[in-house]
Amino acid sequence: TVALAPPDQVAAEIKKLFGDKKLVEGKIKLDLPSIAENGLVVPLAFEVESPMTDKDYVKAVHLFAEGNPVPHIATFHFSPLAPKAAASIRIRLAQTQNIVAVAEMSNGDLFKASKEVKVTIGGCGG
Predict the structure, then answer these.
(1) Which strand (E) or helix (H) includes residue 15?
(2) How many CB atoms neighbour CB 48 within 10 A?
(3) Claim: this prediction has a pTM higher than 0.85
(4) Cβ-Cβ contacts under 8 Å for 31 (sequence gap 6 or more)
(5) 3-class secondary-structure state, position 6
(6) Residue 105 and residue 50 in contact, taking contact as beta carbons nearer than 8 Å
(7) Phi and psi of 46, rounded to 5°?
(8) How many Å apart are CA 32 and CA 45, to the nearest integer?
(9) pLDDT the model gives residue 125
(10) For residue 3, what is the enclosing H or E element?
(11) Most Cβ neighbours (<10 Å): which of 32, 74, 88, 121?
């Protein structure tokens, strides 16, 4: 069997990156399917609300999966030169789980969003 990360491992990964800084819900639009018929290729897109100016921009977006063997999926880095803080990828999910996005702003603020993705086997539910 595959070793899966317990959900609190995502919290531990976030704590490693940011210590005890407060994460506030909001600013992140996380676009994921509610049901993924194939956990091998799950589309994920995000966009963070930001003016993307020299004084106010998104530094990075970190993506985590609560039920994968390695919870930290990816990190995207941005600069004020980017027109917007957005990206899309395809991820692999071992089971039904929450995906967590953390946006790190240039002023140090942290924003969080999460969404559950139900992974079915062959589209039959489960």
Answers:
(1) helix 7-18
(2) 26
(3) yes
(4) 43, 44, 45, 46, 47, 88
(5) coil
(6) yes
(7) -145, 155
(8) 7
(9) 45
(10) none
(11) 32
Q: Give the whole-angstrom CA distance, residue 102 versus residue 1.
A: 29
Burial, 25: exposed, middle or buried (Cβ in 10 Å; 0-12, 13-18, 19+)? exposed
Contact yes or no for 45/61 (Cβ under 8 A): no
What H or E segment, with its residue span, contains residue 39? none
**For range 12-28, the mean pLDDT:** 95
- How far is residue 121's CA from residue 113's CA, in Å, rounded to a whole number? 26
Tell me, what's the pLDDT at 69? 87
Query: What does the pLDDT look like over 34-84, one tens digit per residue?
Result: 999 888 999 999 999 999 999 999 999 999 999 888 899 999 999 999 999
Does the structure show a pLDDT above 50 at 14?
Answer: yes
Q: Are 90 and 44 in contact (CB under 8 A)?
A: yes
Report the alpha-carbon distance of residue 52 to residue 60 in Å, rounded. 12
Counted residue by residue, the chain has a size of 126
